[in-house]
Design goal:
By secondary structure, this protein is α/β, with parallel strands linked by helices. The protein is built from five helices and 14 strands. The chain is globular, with a radius of gyration of 20 Å.
């Protein structure tokens, strides 16, 4: 399996001698599997002066990270839309695939850890910048799934968090997970999920595997179950036209919140199947 990295390049709550914010490059390896030991993931961090924030500095720093890594990346995920041009250019210059994505669980956990334990220890830490608002974008308008990709049936289910420790042993054709040890979650916590049943389960799962699956959400105002992908796409998984399914969707949303945003999406050919055409562990992140 090719290596994927997660990247953030942005200002931090630390200032230089001119009271200018210092920037920082963070890259870490995407774990991809639940069985992966988070401590084994490659990590690289480097501060950048505010007057050197450009694709040239980023390219040089990325090369430094690659030189230190046990294996070079093929793809680099990044979640900040406002940095799209700079990151995309640096990756293109290095022959890497830049992937707009909110599947950056390992990076987000590491960044939160640094916000709590690393930056406040710096003598030039600026507490007022800790909660400075990022650049927010309007949520994308959900689009209908392609006709060939629609499931015939679907259903809400839940599994205890500890069950996902066995995910690597399940028969899954397409999918992705991450170690739950990255999250502070009780093993007995119910994790909600959506299973889509389709006679074309394998093509549906293959199509989904080409997207950066972010999160499933119930849009109560539109009575829609929506799958967010990348950072500018959203797909209508189902239009909920009756009270029963809307109540089930509300229950899914509530369980997801209790699980700290953790949930999953599965694709099967029928309810009696013992294998999955697709299975993705998802984490709804609050990214600015």
């Amino acid at each position: 399996m090719s290596t994927t990295w997660e990247l953030d390049f942005y200002s931090r709550p630390i200032v230089d001698e001119n009271n200018k914010k210092i920037w920082e490059l963070l890259v870490c390896e995407s774990p991809m599997e639940v069985a992966r030991d988070p401590d084994s993931l490659f990590r690289f961090a480097k501060y950048c002066p505010s007057n050197q924030v450009n694709s040239i500095w980023l390219t040089s720093a990325l090369q430094e990270a690659i030189d230190q890594a046990p294996s070079p990346p093929v793809r680099i995920r990044f979640f900040r839309r406002q940095m799209n041009n700079m990151i995309s250019k640096a990756c293109k210059d290095m022959g890497l695939q830049a992937v707009p994505s909110q599947r950056t669980v390992a990076l987000s956990c590491w960044l939160q850890e640094r916000m709590e334990k690393v930056y406040p220890q710096d003598p030039n830490f600026q507490e007022s910048a800790m909660n400075a608002p990022g650049v927010r974008f309007n949520a994308p308008t959900p689009q209908p799934l392609p006709d060939a990709m629609r499931g015939e049936k679907w259903g809400f289910v839940s599994l205890p968090a500890q069950e996902f420790q066995q995910m690597s042993a399940w028969e899954i054709s397409f999918g992705e997970g991450f170690p739950l040890s990255l999250l502070d979650i009780d093993p007995k916590t119910p994790v909600p999920g959506l299973i889509v049943f389709s006679r074309r389960a394998t093509p549906l799962a293959a199509w989904m595997s080409g997207l950066e699956l972010d999160a499933i959400a119930f849009h109560e105002w539109a009575s829609q179950l929506v799958l967010a992908t990348g950072f500018s796409e959203a797909w209508i998984l189902a239009q909920l036209n009756d009270d029963t399914t809307r109540q089930e969707a509300q229950g899914f949303q509530q369980l997801k919140e209790k699980a700290g945003g953790l949930h999953f999406l599965a694709v099967q050919s029928d309810p009696n199947s013992e294998s999955f055409a697709g299975f993705w562990l998802l984490q709804e992140l609050d990214l600015a």
